[in-house]
Here is the input.
Amino acid sequence: MTTRSGRNYKVVSETIGEEWIADLIKVLIEDRKSRDAQFEGERKRQLQAAELEKAQMREQMEMLRKLVEDSRRSPKGIAQPSINADQITSLDVISSPSAGQECPPRYIRVNQDLNQGSGGNYIYLCYSTDPFFVQPVTDILVVASTSSAIDPPAEYTLISEDLNKGAGGKYIYLMYTKRNGRSALEGIDAIAGDRADTADVYAPPGWIKYTQDLNEGSGGKYIYFIYKYEN
Here is the structure.
């Protein structure tokens, strides 16, 4: 006995071929796997962003705790943090399919697309000199990896936005520290050129070039962070 569904399958298979049906099923399965992978990647990025926010909050709470402790030992009340107007107090990264995205409040955008020429997202560095963030930044670290799972070294804060997002190549992340006993950063920028050895990718006098190409593995311009310490 042949069921109706069996007859339907026989008619369909005879019309378009069993091999075509099998190929279609494979395509549907691969599409589902791809969408699942994209969802998992986005979930990881959201978790990393949440962890960064928590780390910044913990950092601010710890500094406030120290200020309160200092105030108890001082007859003049709460001691004000010693931050010069030009000192970098926080860093962030923004990423968008369009070029018009602005930095969060209290931040200034560096107008060099960190993905220039690679075809990925528009990515910009943001920095702040606002004393709201209490302590100055004293060092940066850029890590390039074949994996998006990055564990920052002790006392470093990881900015979870991939600097190669949408462009392929390696996963590249920026980290920073506010470790005591070091000079504060008072300037940070980015430079770009068509070749790694051209004059437009050399740091100007008084600045330091970080030698990690921010477009590594994705083509496009050679792009580097430059920074300087307070005198």
